[in-house]
Specification:
mainly alpha, 63% helix, globular
Length: 284
């Protein structure tokens, strides 16, 4: 039966890749809580990050709707609580046992895209100045939460949307609307609202793919849009969930930077991307 948009509010956690969960548990299990930085261990996994942020923004800790980054969440929860969250993270069984139902988006590619977008967003946040780089990083990491949800829970329907997008030469978001009656950004917004996330993160789904030609609701969100655009220009793994091309000049004006800034920063920014890719490939 086709799922309604409201159905996604019932999701407690998004699943993660089995090897991701295993590597985190091995790392946390082999060291004491004083010997590792839990953020470094989970920082490139969007599903784990979402689960941790959900708990940190719950009324239990007294900061509902105020925790905008993994760093803030880690400081609030501590390693033990975060490890418990990870233990409850569902495993993407389809990824390892049922390839015939795999969506057109490879989960490994989606995790790679999320990780490099996060790393580049954090790097941009540091260089631009006046921004919280950890918030920029986290926004980049979770910006495709709706895509993960559709890939995990509606793979056949998402495959149909991909086929429509390819055959009819329409934006994938528009194809999703034809199939579902809503798109992945709508799903992302439902998750953010249901989980009590702050506006600084839920705004990702107001502007990231739907209005990025005309305006951006905040600078951290604009940083994520710029990171995705740069990754596309540099030939790194991309996600198809973009509607139109953002106006790069207006984007830079909104952020208060220039093309010369980007040129001068490019070597350093590419290092952030390479580091994320090495970690995600298990090379670091």
């Amino acid at each position: 039966m086709k799922k309604s948009l409201d159905w996604f509010r019932s999701i407690k956690n998004l699943p993660s890749l089995p090897e991701q969960i295993n590597s985190v548990l091995v790392a946390t299990g082999s060291t004491s809580s004083m010997d590792y930085n839990i953020v470094e261990i989970i920082q490139y996994d969007p599903s784990m990050a979402l689960s941790v942020l959900k708990v940190a923004n719950s009324p239990v800790y007294g900061y509902s709707g105020k925790i905008s980054s993994l760093q803030q969440a880690a400081g609030l929860l501590g390693p033990g609580a975060i490890k418990n969250v990870i233990l409850r993270t569902p495993i993407l069984e389809r990824y390892s046992t049922n390839h015939q139902n795999e969506t057109p988006i490879g989960f490994g590619d989606l995790w790679m895209h999320s990780g490099v977008t996060a790393s580049l967003s954090g790097g941009l946040g540091r260089l631009i100045g006046g921004l919280e780089s950890d918030v920029c990083f986290t926004a980049g990491l979770i910006h495709d939460a709706g895509v993960i949800a559709l890939s995990a829970y509606c793979p056949k329907e998402l495959a149909e949307a991909f086929e429509i997008s390819r055959n009819d030469k329409v934006c994938l978001l528009d194809a999703e609307k034809k199939v579902f009656g809503f798109d992945s950004f709508d799903v992302g917004m439902e998750l953010m609202n249901a989980w009590g996330f702050p506006k600084s993160l839920s705004d990702l789904y107001r502007s990231d793919g739907k209005d990025n030609k005309s305006s951006w609701v905040s600078k951290p969100i604009a940083v994520v849009v710029l990171a995705k655009l740069l990754l596309q220009e540099w030939g790194y793994p991309a996600c198809s969930h973009i509607q139109g091309e953002p106006d790069k000049e207006r984007l830079l004006q909104f952020l208060g930077i220039t093309t010369d800034n980007l040129f001068n920063w490019e070597v350093e920014l590419r290092k952030y991307v390479i580091l994320a890719m090495r970690v995600l490939k298990g090379e670091d």
